[in-house]
Write a structure and sequence with these properties.
With 876 residues, the protein is of the alpha/beta class. 26% of the residues lie in helices and 24% in strands. Among the domains are: 53 residues, no CATH class; 109 residues, no CATH class; 121 residues, Jelly Rolls (Sandwich), CATH 2.60.120.380; 117 residues, Immunoglobulin-like (Sandwich). The strands form eight sheets. The chain has a six-stranded mixed beta sheet with strand order 1-2-3-4-6-9. Strands 10-25-24-23-11-12 form a six-stranded mixed beta sheet, sandwiched between helices. The chain has a six-stranded antiparallel beta sheet with strand order 14-13-16-21-18-19, with no helix packed on it. Strand 13 and strand 14 form a beta hairpin. The protein is globular and about 75 Å long.
């Protein structure tokens, strides 16, 4: 075992399962498995499934897999046509039917990608009302991507797989690998960043670890689901090179390297038809070129039709919004088409074979199937480990961090995320956790455990600007679980012609100089009884009603705030309805008997007097959520104003951002200490405290670029973000590639992340000066921890094609290696390039092409911090 692998092993927690440890020697296991395959008829994809298992588990799984194909051919002829059709569509909200006479069980699926979702009613979206459906809330996959560590991906997948099995699930609907092309995208927090290589490298260990638990992973959403704006109708139209180089590699790796059992299609259209019935995506690429043998299933309620879905490779239809399961496109309509000879029964047989293959491979008919485990201390430890390794230290001027726990006695904690919990929100990824440690909880626990009496003062800073009613009082929930206001748009002033419905986080609306008739409504619950002053700041006609009683109905002028005093009773629910008609802005706020918020003088005085000021800001699932994109890239709730004022009185204020998408940080130059924690799962507060006080050394790196401005990003700059079609006009220049091509300086670059340690890079070596066609190139370098603190560095390998016949990025990530080093220690990192790494997708030959010529490898700590480089020739 190499030095770098020894250090990786030391870094893992005790919660890592034996299967994951063994994965460090996966190549040896694959070799062993290959010898089994020669005698037992297993295919190459099945061999991959063995690569993360212990020897005894390999033998168990090898025996099962060796019988799968024969069992499929035994069962298939016994199925009636009607029974076969019943298997290719839902028989409930989250399962397909059983065929009991053949011992074919119901196949159950569950959201989501970072924790098994609470139980949904069998035939509706209502919660089933179980009291034992709690699960470990893991940090979302953005945190895994920020770790740049396959071991964290394996940990994540192992917990997810084990808990899904314990809940008797057969497919877990994750991981997600769509790329963060647009910072506004509502589901960025679920995915693995902006780079195709990084996502591909991390999805493989995630899938293997899930499936080692006898559960099928479901990689999603295939393909090009990069916006929630009209997600069911927007037409994705990238050119073929962009499709192949950027948006498919993670799916390809999941199929070819991890043998993923299931893939979920995207909501969006692809070149004019729904992605779930695209011949090019499914028949040509997925099941043709890649040789995929698993199932393709829909997301819930997608826009397909019977013939195209049946003929172009869709295997399972889930969640269609019709009255009966028999009305699904792949139900009675498919049965009738087959009987009429319009769809060959052979197409149906292929789908059934795939479904049976998955069921048999995960042991649904196997009495020795693993039983899983859930809510264990080991899983909680793993959640904490992943969260800790995902924290990115963006800035640490003057070594503000780590804080010295022995020297601080008065800590001021502020910000909307200081005491917020995020697990139960965001959409299909919501998790019902036994608990969730907030940042404030984590700080209190740290000092309580140490037996040190520290004054931790928590305040809620109020903005000097007119603020909307905080969602602390809101009882209305968007279906994603997020406190939200419903907004309805009408074509007429009488509000008779409803044109669209949506949801917003706060009762404020900007018409952007377009005449609008909108209705904003929600239910609120006061926390104190007494007089509440409702306030409206608007330019236009407004009407305000509480419990259907109209209180205000007049034309508003922004020079005057409209006020109405009303007596409200604590814990009673009130229906608020605000109507705005105009083309400017409206905001509904209020004053309560005793505000939850501290005024400016109070919180700034506290900041001046504190030993440490910790501002936990960022986003929540009112912003990052399925079905809705963010309206802009700004921090919500006047956070920028408050951060600026805190930094003015205390420049050592630590700004700790929580969120899954990029935000603008106009105050970044003034701040000395900035960290990014994503959504940290149920152990978030403990992980964040460990980082802030030096019990853990930050080692995460940004898996996305943090732009200075939304206008700097490619989709916005190219006017390629709308409801109808997305042309992917930037081509292969996604994320950091765009910023380098356009020479735009981001706030913080892709791959950036500081440590409490410092590292030097030396002695780069190439295995040869010329790489031949079909050959490989090995690159090594020495990394030295030059500090007095043990830590980890992620060395990143970028490749540049010096002279190409097509436009290629200045740098393309082609390798990374996280190395753990003690103070003063030197270790070696190693990377291997293949011909595919040198290639681009050639539209003339419709294949990968590596052109002869000079290539430069660049090794660094981020895409902008290149420490070493060296060139070689590629010869055909």
């Amino acid at each position: 075992m190499t030095m770098k692998h020894r250090h990786k092993m030391k870094a893992l927690t005790k919660g890592i399962k034996h299967a994951l440890v063994v994965s460090l020697s996966a190549s040896m296991l694959i070799s062993t498995s290959s010898s089994f395959a020669q005698s037992d008829g297993m295919n190459t994809n099945q061999i991959h499934a063995l690569s993360v298992l212990s020897q005894s588990e390999q033998q168990r799984l090898q025996t099962r897999l060796s019988k799968v194909e024969a069992e499929i051919e035994r069962l298939l002829p016994q199925l009636t046509l009607e029974e076969k059709v019943s298997l290719v569509h839902a028989g409930g909200k989250f399962h397909i039917p059983a065929i009991e006479r053949l011992n074919i069980h119901e196949m159950w699926m569950s959201d989501g990608p970072h924790g098994v979702r609470y139980e949904i009613d069998r035939n509706s979206w209502a919660p089933a009302g179980w009291t034992n459906d709690y699960s470990t809330y893991l940090p979302p996959l953005t945190a895994v991507a920020a770790s740049w560590d396959p071991n964290m991906a394996s940990l994540h997948g192992n917990v997810l797989g084990a808990e899904a099995r314990h809940r008797n699930k057969d497919l877990i609907l994750g991981p997600g690998v769509n790329l963060a092309r647009l910072p506004l995208y509502g589901r960025n927090f679920e995915y693995m960043g902006e780079d195709p290589y990084l996502a591909a490298a991390l999805v493989v260990p995630t899938v293997k670890a899930i499936q080692a638990n006898d559960v099928g992973a479901t990689v999603k959403h295939y393909a090009l689901n990069t916006q929630e704006l009209n997600r069911t109708g927007v037409n994705a139209k990238p050119d073929e090179r962009t499709l192949r180089e950027v948006y498919l590699p993670a799916f390809e790796a999941a199929v070819k390297e991890a043998n993923v059992y299931a893939i979920m299609g995207a909501y969006n259209e692809f070149r004019g038809t729904n992605a779930n019935q695209s011949h090019h995506l499914i028949k040509t690429i997925l099941k043709g070129e890649w040789g995929y043998e698993g199932v393709l299933l829909t997301d819930w309620n997608v826009d397909i039709n019977t013939y195209d879905a049946a003929m172009n490779g869709l295997d399972i239809e889930m969640g269609t919004d019709v009255a009966s399961y028999d009305e699904y496109f792949l139900a009675t309509p498919l049965l009738n088409m087959i009987k009429a000879g319009k769809v060959p029964e052979s197409e149906l047989d292929d789908k059934v074979r795939r479904i049976l293959r998955v069921q048999l491979s995960i042991g649904m008919m196997d009495k020795q199937r693993l039983s899983g485990e859930r809510n264990t201390q080991a899983h909680r430890n793993d959640a904490r480990t992943i969260a800790t390794n995902g924290v990115v230290l963006l800035k640490n001027d003057g070594k503000v961090l780590p804080l010295d726990a022995q020297k601080v006695s008065n800590i001021l904690v502020l910000g909307p995320n200081a005491d917020k919990r995020h697990g139960f929100g965001g959409g299909s990824s919501e998790v019902k956790a036994l608990y969730e440690i907030s940042p404030l909880d984590g700080l209190k626990a740290k000092f309580k455990q140490a037996g040190k009496n520290v004054n931790i003062q928590h305040v809620r800073p109020a903005s000097s600007q007119f603020m909307p009613i905080p969602n602390d009082y809101l009882t209305t929930r968007h279906w994603t679980g997020t406190p939200s206001w419903q907004i309805n748009y009408y074509a007429d002033k009488q509000l008779n012609q409803l044109t669209s419905e949506s949801w917003i986080a706060d009762p404020q609306f900007d018409a952007k100089n377009q005449p609008q008739n909108v209705e904003i409504k929600a239910n609120i619950k006061p926390v104190e009884s007494g007089k509440h002053t409702l306030k409206i700041l608007a330019d236009g006609d407004v009407s305000l009603a509480v419990n259907d009683k109209i209180l205000v109905n007049k034309k508003a002028n922004p020079a005057n705030i409209i006020e109405y005093v009303i007596d409200l009773t604590a814990d009673e629910t009130y229906a608020i309805r605000l109507i705005y008609q105009g083309q400017q802005q409206v905001t509904l706020g209020w004053e309560t008997p005793n505000s939850l918020y501290n005024d400016e003088a109070e919180y700034l005085a506290a900041a001046q007097n504190a030993d440490a000021v910790l501002y936990f800001g960022g986003l929540s699932h009112a912003d990052d959520r399925e079905s809705i994109d963010r309206p802009d890239m700004k921090l919500p709730g006047q956070q920028d104003e408050i951060i600026n004022k805190l930094l003015a009185v205390n420049p050592n204020t630590v700004v700790f951002i929580i969120g899954g998408s990029a935000v603008e940080m106009p105050w970044a130059d003034k701040a000395n200490a900035i960290a990014w924690g994503w959504y940290g799962g149920m152990e978030a507060g403990h992980a964040y405290s460990d980082i802030l006080f030096g019990d853990a050394n930050p080692n995460g790196k940004m898996p996305i670029t943090l732009p200075k401005s939304l206008q700097d990003t490619a989709p916005i700059a190219l006017n390629d973000y709308n409801e109808t079609e997305s042309l992917y006009s930037e081509g292969v220049f996604i994320g950091y590639r765009w910023f380098e091509q356009q020479k735009i300086a981001p706030a913080f670059p892709f791959g950036h992340g500081l440590s409490y340690s410092q590292f030097s890079y030396d002695n780069i070596k190439l295995s040869k000066s010329t790489m031949a066609e079909g050959g490989t190139m090995t690159i090594t370098a020495d990394i030295t921890n030059t500090s007095g603190i043990d830590g980890a560095e992620v060395a990143q390998l970028y490749l540049h094609d010096v002279k190409a016949s097509v436009s290629r990025p200045q740098k393309e990530l082609k390798g990374f290696d996280k190395i753990w080093l003690k103070a003063g220690e030197t270790g070696q990192v190693s990377f291997t390039l293949t011909q595919r790494d040198l290639s681009f997708w050639d539209i003339n030959s419709n294949d990968w092409l590596a052109e002869a010529g000079k290539f430069t490898v660049m090794l660094g700590s981020s895409v902008e911090d290149i420490r070493l480089q060296k060139s070689f020739n590629y010869q055909k």
